[in-house]
Amino acid sequence: MSSSSPTVYSISLLLSLALIFIFAPEILPSQNPFSSPHDDLDDLALFNKALRSVHGDGRGGHRRLRISRLATKNPTPKIAFLFLTNSNLTFAPLWDLFFRGHSHLYNIYVHADPFSAVEIPSPFESHLIPSKRTERASPTLIAAERRLLARAILDDPFNLYFALVSQHCIPIHSFPFFYRSLLGDNPIRAFGSQPRHRSFIEILSDDPNLPERYAARGENAMMPEVPFDEFRVGSQFFVLAKRHALLVLSDRKLWRKFRLQCLNLDSCYPEEHYFPTLLSMADPKGCSKFTLTNVNWTGSWDGHPYTYEAPEISVGLIRRLRQSNSSYPYIFARKFSPDCLPPLMDIADDVIFRD
């Protein structure tokens, strides 16, 4: 029996490799030039591990029991802040003021492109996650955001909300204001009401460029999984409830389409398409369809929004950036040039963090 073991193992290994070659094109299409099959399989293992950490054996009762025990042990829900960057975190000092005194209510995770010259200041450098290459007009930004979600879910089961921000984002309200807006003042209730938590993500169906964006990978490339009438666009930056973060990690169907190579780079911004489309198709009523990040698209160029400069920083600007046409206020804003940091720090305590 023992003498045949090496033979059995060899046959099993050959069969496994054969199955990978046969089914890998269905699971991990090879049309993405920005990532390797090894990267994709590595991410898939990470996402599955994060899902198992929550769902356990997959039975709903197991999950509810686990959440109940967690809530009894420590009833303090947290917000995970996901920083996605390919340049220096210029505004780290401002974010440090935003977080100060509330370390028990948040976690930070930083995905920094390892192919860019990025300097991550302390204490943010201690929150770096294993990261991979990112490129505009490619699905690598989607992959990076999913990677951040998975790491945050694995790291702390008390992370109930996940806020994605960029290196050009700044807070325009205090942390307590943001925390209460999402979770209220009753931690036990926050755990028990997770199925009712809403996600804050822009979801648009009337964008004038929708046809061009839909066809960016080819005329019929998105069919049949994503019909045109279900295709949506929106802002890249979001605040997701935990159930929606898990939905993103479990998705395979839409990811196979949105990871296809773009043919028309002028209309292809996968990270602005994938999340709005997936959540709109899966749970439209669970999303506010509104982003909490104020972005000024006046005078935008090459897909970039308006960039605020230091002379524009004022009390009036912060107050205007907070205003919205929705019942939800803006909590963050972008895009700011590095020279904005000194004037922002000057008004941080008296204006930005005074709600």
Molecular structure report:
This protein is α/β, with parallel strands linked by helices and 355 residues long. It has one domain: Spore Coat Polysaccharide Biosynthesis Protein SpsA, Chain A (Alpha-Beta Complex), CATH 3.90.550. It is 41% helix and 10% strand. The chain contains 13 helices and seven strands. It has helices spanning 5-27, 37-55, 60-73, 92-99, 140-155, 175-183, 187-192, 210-214, 242-250, 255-258, 270-282, 315-322, 341-352, and strands at residues 78-85, 106-112, 159-166, 170-171, 239-241, 293-295, 332-334. The strands form two sheets. It has a four-stranded mixed beta sheet with strand order 2-1-3-5. Strands 4-7-6 form a three-stranded mixed beta sheet. Helix 2 runs parallel beside helix 5. The longest helix has 23 residues, at 5-27. Residues 17-30 and 58-65 have low confidence and may be disordered.
Q: Concise description?
A:
The protein is built from 13 helices and 7 strands. The protein has helices at residues 5-27, 37-55, 60-73, 92-99, 140-155, 175-183, 187-192, 210-214, 242-250, 255-258, 270-282, 315-322, 341-352; strands spanning 78-85, 106-112, 159-166, 170-171, 239-241, 293-295, 332-334. The strands form 2 sheets. A 4-stranded mixed beta sheet has the order 2-1-3-5. The protein has a 3-stranded mixed beta sheet with strand order 4-7-6.
